[in-house]
Amino acid sequence: MHCAPKSVALFALLLSSACATGVVDGPADKTGSEGTTGPTDLDTHDPDSADSADTADSGDLVPTTPLEDVLTQEALLGHLDALQAIADTHDHTRYTFGDGYKDSVAYAVSVFENAGYTVTQQTFTLSGFDEDSPPELSRIAPDSRAYPGADLRTLTYSAGGDVTAALAAVDVVMPPGASSNSSTSGCQASDFDGFPAGSVALIQRGSCSFSEKVQYAEAAGAVAVLIYNEGQSGRQAVESWTLDPGIPVRVPVLGTSFDVGADLYAALEAGPVEVRVVVDAGIVEERVTNVLAELDRGDPDQLVVVGAHLDSVTAGPGINDNGTGTAFVLAAAEAAVAVDLHPERRIRWALWGAEEIGLIGSDHYVSELSSADIDRHYANLNFDMIGSPNGGRFIYDGDGSATGYAGPPGSDDIEALFEAWFDSQGLTHLPTAFDGRSDYGPFIWAGIPAGGLFSGAEVSKSSTEADLFGGRAGEPLDACYHQDCDSRSNIDETLFYEMSLAAAHVTRRVAEGTAAMGPPPPVRVPHPRIDPHTVPLGHGHGHGCHPVDR
Ligand SMILES: [Zn+2]
Q1: Known catalytic residue: 355?
Q2: Domains in the chain, ordered, with CATH?
């Protein structure tokens, strides 16, 4: 799978306005139960009040049953089952460019619409590099030799192609010079004087960028380019090299070890050489879809975006990551209708695409907001992995007390709401790094306060965490993180339910808004980004990049 962000350029926004057309209600009211101040007014809840919950749109002024009182474990697990079934019919994955994702979108849309929501699919096109199978390089003449795959690597942003042609060396330094960048192979147009158009260029690493070498080669009529490592100590093996994504390439560009280059050069010294180059890659345009759902209830100038990413990695079905957050959003949205929730603030339920390849969906959403739109966003709540099989109850460190990195003002209030809820339930909790490694990142960078929950990924459970949460110290919080085994059986259902109830409670409190959080500031101030690696707590959620890939 791809570790580097795949995003190159974003095109063609097709976002229609998210105005409600299906549901029209009276003005927002404040008949909810949050008449008291302070974060722990939970004793006002009637546990049987779900029985009196009204159906949607039956009228205003219905006392609101707390959202968390009607969120059932059955509903949550039912959505997980549905997502697993989707993955089962699509090669065990719901990755963002596959049919498993399309079906996940269709499922989410149907759930929202059946509950009465107005749904907007925010779609846009993402242009990126994609390689479908490993490259091949073989010598065809004067004799046949296939080079081992371990010595070959396609340059990122190479074009694809299957080319058989004569080979021509370009100003190489053989044997290589004593120090790196002794070679200027392919760095000047004059290096290609006499280069036979229609040939494959054999170029040595050194002195200038790979893109410069390829541009000159293309101009000289090369039909493919081989770039071999320069040959000094430390510049022997093939490496991962990247072309400039801003300069389109028309021919396959393959990197090789020094040994491959030396073998081909030796053959050229003896006479004409013909090679075959196969690169199964290129720039593809893919559609990314975010799903947004809301009712015409609550102040649309105080939006509370409650989000989770809907995509999985290519390696697996993504039921903990992030079927759990998705299932929470769907079940909570249904529950909000079931209790006829009329919040002071507008809730916008959001399921993001392309999180696993770099927060693409949520980043696009925020990037499309004007500064006035950003000021209309009251808060973002994010739920990404909340049912980890050896997990814990981790709260994003909105006040920075544990990590030194706080979110925008208001993030501290959201963290406090989660803490108070878990305390009220007699459930332990710990802070986790609030470093922007999930879909709340684009929101906090825009100055919008955020918060959320996380139950753990590939990091091993500490003895402190095992003491607080149970489970197995020294083993990963989610041993199936970003793997095929992140399936329906990879869920701690009790933990998932506890986390979902906390999420529902805080969603309600932030949206009801009476005492939980103050009025928004008139203007959101952009928030500095940090390097996630500088934040000391190791519970951040990696994105499309398993740690072994780094
Ligand atoms: Zn995730």
Answers
A1: yes
A2: 9-17+31-117+295-531+538-549 (3.40.630.10), 129-283 (3.50.30.30)
